Amino acid sequence: MTELPPLEKLFxxxxxxxxxxxxxxxVLVKEVAEGFGCDKELSDKLVxxxxxxxxxxxxxxYKFDSSGKIVFKIHKQDQTSxxxxxxxDNAEPIDLDSVxxxxxxxxxxxxxxxxxxxxxxxxxxMGHLDNGKGNYLKMExxxxx
Amino acid sequence: xxxxxxxxxxxxxxxxxxDVDLSSSSDARKNIIEVLKENKxxxxxxxxxxxxxxxxVASLVEGYQIAKKQSLKFGLFGVSDAAMSVLKLARLxxxxxxxxxxxxxxxxxx
Lengths: 145, 110
Fold this sequence. Notes:
The complex is a heterodimer of chains A (145) and B (110). Chain A is built from three helices and five strands; from the N terminus they run βααββαββ. Chain A has 145 residues and is of the alpha+beta class. The two termini of chain A are 26 Å apart. In chain B, strand 2, helix 1 and strand 3 form a beta-alpha-beta unit. Chain B is globular. Chain B has a five-stranded mixed sheet. Classes of the chains: A alpha+beta (145), B alpha/beta (110). At the A-B interface, helix 1, helix 2 and helix 3 of A face helix 2 and helix 3 of B.
């Protein structure tokens, strides 16, 4: 079996889990996506997905506790033309069953973030950190360049 | 985000300008709800929206539902490309009344 080459880290940022940091994250994701060869439409969509993922951490994991921190990393794999996004927090473990895309026919405010991630990314995986405190979310997108 | 409010004879226009995200959507929500509490029809101008996230979209959905309940007219106008792509992802472009011009909004009944 051919082993895939390791991922190459494009950047890592540690930031305070507050809504005011989201604009910075959006700029960073857009820069990376465009640099990787994504067209404008896909870059904008990746920005939406990552923004929603960060929002979920701020709102639901940290419950707006501004002392919370988020570690955000982007890796790439040129051979498969894939971008990997990873978010890690140190909040209390979330109820993973509650994080599901919802039925869009049910018109109501809220609950759209996970749907956006589900629609935009090729795959995502979330779970609790091994030390029992914190959560991770990994998302990936293969790009046709 | 900036909010511009304009009163017309039969309705109030709320213009959202800039990024409508988690740091600003509560202001948008507050203004939309205030207009509807005064029992006024509402038109939301999204032409200057550079980004809108699910919290901003939730403010629009809430306004739409309150307006519907109170038999008030609710509409979106001049939806920017950035806002439209998010509305499409949420499939709300098929739910919200979207107008190309103020004239079109004014002419349509509730």
